[in-house]
């Protein structure tokens, strides 16, 4: 089969790789019909090279049709249409029973000290082949696979794999609802959904984003948008009686702009030999923290900062005195996808599309165009906000 493979820093290629097989009795094999490029994939593309091996199959936002199931799978059968969550969880361990599927004790990657295994996401998270491919092996299929109907288009459901529940969890962690205020820093795909969800739940939402096309998209959904500058922060404070919003969602993460020293550290980590690069990432701060620092500065005293953007530095500095003095609550973590899908399914299937799931994708391309799509997404050219790859399409460029 064809699959998108990591080959080096800022280099992916589409290669022929072995078809996935049933290995455990709890596995399923899914024929992928749509698979998206996530902002987290750019961390593999740009920063996390020391944890990658050339030939790794990447991608963790797929959906498709079940082709084959193991003897222990009863929840789905061949022919079922499914979405595949990015975290791999058993559904029955101590953590899973408490809704913490991203910490699943059955699939925890203990050798790297990380939580549950993830699809297509480096040695840190199990080096499990990912979903930017024609076919995908799904471990623990009974708990993981989200069974859906056949009537609506893929884009109604695809984002249940990651970014929609990630945004939902970020807003739930922020604790905002009717009559409250929230600022979303970064209006990439997760930030777009976080802002729309907060609006759906009745909050007043401010969106901070440097790129006009992303601000324009968020504005279509009732978000009050502005570029990231001192005037924007002053405007939000003025609108919230000088206090700042009740909560701030940082939807940017480790690749925020604004710190050339951290940017240099990320570059060094990416080009060092793997052993040295892993050592550096495990002992120093290698994140660009401007978005996080903005969030901490902006939120009102006694408010909440919710992190949905991924940070990777093991010792990144934090303004603890400021955080303590402001009496802040800080919540974060990988999304527990299956904890939120029952809340989200009625919304994505609603004919009114209240979260605007069909107003996010800017580019839908054949799988073979993945290298160009990664470059475009990383450089934010051609108005690129969200790319979906179609393994069933013919590459029109050939």
From TrEMBL:
PROSITE patterns: ADH_ZINC. Keywords: Metal-binding, Oxidoreductase, Zinc. InterPro entries: ADH-like_C (IPR013149), ADH-like_N (IPR013154), ADH_Zn_CS (IPR002328), GroES-like_sf (IPR011032), NAD(P)-bd_dom_sf (IPR036291). Its cofactor is Zn(2+). SUPFAM superfamilies: GroES-like (SSF50129), NAD(P)-binding Rossmann-fold domains (SSF51735). It comes from the Bacteria. Residues 26-142 form the Alcohol dehydrogenase-like N-terminal domain. Residues 189-255 form the Alcohol dehydrogenase-like C-terminal domain. GO terms for molecular function: oxidoreductase activity; zinc ion binding. Belongs to the zinc-containing alcohol dehydrogenase family. PANTHER family: DEHYDROGENASE, ZINC-CONTAINING, PUTATIVE (AFU_ORTHOLOGUE AFUA_2G02810)-RELATED (PTHR42813:SF2), ZINC-TYPE ALCOHOL DEHYDROGENASE-LIKE (PTHR42813). This is Glutathione-dependent formaldehyde dehydrogenase. It comes from Kocuria soli. The lineage of its organism: Bacteria, Bacillati, Actinomycetota, Actinomycetes, Micrococcales.
């Amino acid at each position: 089969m064809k699959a998108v493979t990591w080959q080096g820093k800022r280099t992916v290629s589409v290669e022929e790789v072995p078809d996935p097989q049933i290995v455990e009795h709890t596995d399923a094999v899914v024929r992928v019909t749509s698979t998206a490029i996530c902002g987290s994939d750019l961390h593999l593309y740009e920063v996390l090279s020391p944890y990658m091996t050339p030939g790794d199959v990447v991608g963790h936002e797929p959906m498709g049709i079940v082709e084959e199931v193991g003897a222990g799978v009863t929840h789905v059968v061949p022919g079922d249409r499914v979405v595949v969550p990015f975290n791999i969880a058993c559904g029955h361990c101590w953590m899973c029973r408490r809704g913490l599927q991203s910490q699943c004790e059955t699939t925890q990657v203990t050798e790297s000290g990380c939580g549950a295994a993830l699809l297509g996401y480096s040695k840190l998270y199990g080096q499990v082949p990912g979903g930017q491919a024609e076919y995908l092996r799904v471990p623990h299929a009974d708990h993981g696979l989200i069974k859906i109907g056949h009537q609506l288009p893929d884009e109604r459901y695809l984002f249940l794999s990651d970014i929609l529940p990630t945004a939902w969890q970020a807003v739930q962690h922020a604790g905002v609802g009717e009559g409250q205020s929230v600022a979303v820093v970064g209006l990439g795909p997760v930030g777009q959904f976080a802002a729309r969800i907060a609006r759906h739940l009745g909050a007043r939402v401010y969106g901070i984003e440097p790129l006009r096309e992303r601000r324009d998209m968020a504005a279509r959904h009732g978000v009050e948008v502005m570029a990231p500058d001192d005037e924007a922060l002053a405007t939000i404070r003025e609108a919230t009686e000088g206090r700042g919003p009740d909560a701030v969602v940082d939807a940017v993460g480790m690749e925020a702009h604004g710190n050339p020293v951290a940017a240099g550290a990320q570059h060094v980590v990416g080009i060092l030999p793997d052993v040295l690069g892993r050592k550096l990432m495990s002992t120093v701060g290698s994140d660009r923290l401007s978005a996080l620092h903005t969030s901490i500065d902006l939120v009102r005293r006694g408010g909440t900062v919710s992190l949905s953007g991924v940070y990777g530095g093991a010792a990144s500095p934090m303004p603890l005195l400021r955080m303590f003095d402001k009496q802040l609550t800080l919540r974060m973590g990988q999304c527990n996808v299956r904890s939120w899908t029952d809340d989200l399914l009625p919304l994505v299937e609603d004919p009114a599309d209240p979260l605007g799931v069909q107003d996010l994708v800017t580019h839908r391309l054949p799988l073979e165009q993945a290298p160009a799509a990664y470059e475009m997404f990383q450089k934010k050219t051609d108005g690129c906000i969200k790319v979906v790859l179609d393994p069933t399409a013919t590459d029109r460029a050939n």
